[in-house]
What we know:
The protein is built from 5 helices and no strands. The mean pLDDT is 76. The protein is mostly helical. The radius of gyration is 26 Å and the shape is elongated.
Amino acid sequence: NKNSHLEFKGTTYAKVSEAVSKYFDMLGKFKGLEFAKDSLEKATQYLKETKLKISLGVSAKNDIYQAQQNIEQANENVIKAENELQSSQEEMKKIVAYNTQSEFKNVYFYPGDIENIEKFVKDTKIELDQKQAVTYSLSNSPSYLVAKRNNELNKVTALLNKNDLLPKVTLSYSYKWGD
Length: 179
């Protein structure tokens, strides 16, 4: 009887420890997503600034390709961070014994207050027919979105590489008065 009590206590401590560990892992993934979104905002701002510099003639036109490449990379990082957060949330559900086939299958844990979580759950309920569900699933598949972003990134990289193959012309001028 004492052994079974100690075994139960050990199992309980292990589960609580695992839940705390997964929670902090999920919190880290959530912060990673925030960071990725912030990086995307900064890359977008950099593109706007680059376009302005080009229009003023203080920057080369091929600088825009690097700015576009930064945006595509940031978009890819956002998609990856969203996917990692969702995986972390799924792991957390398994720990707290949510059946992923039950009514909780669309419920995800987010660090924050209950009102925001309840609002998120209400906002994510989608009722579709089978064709719409397949279309929705395929168009929002992380692997599809990453592949789509990779394609855009490859296009920008190809333009950048093509630009590197073109001859570079440098013009300089100096003028000296006197002596």
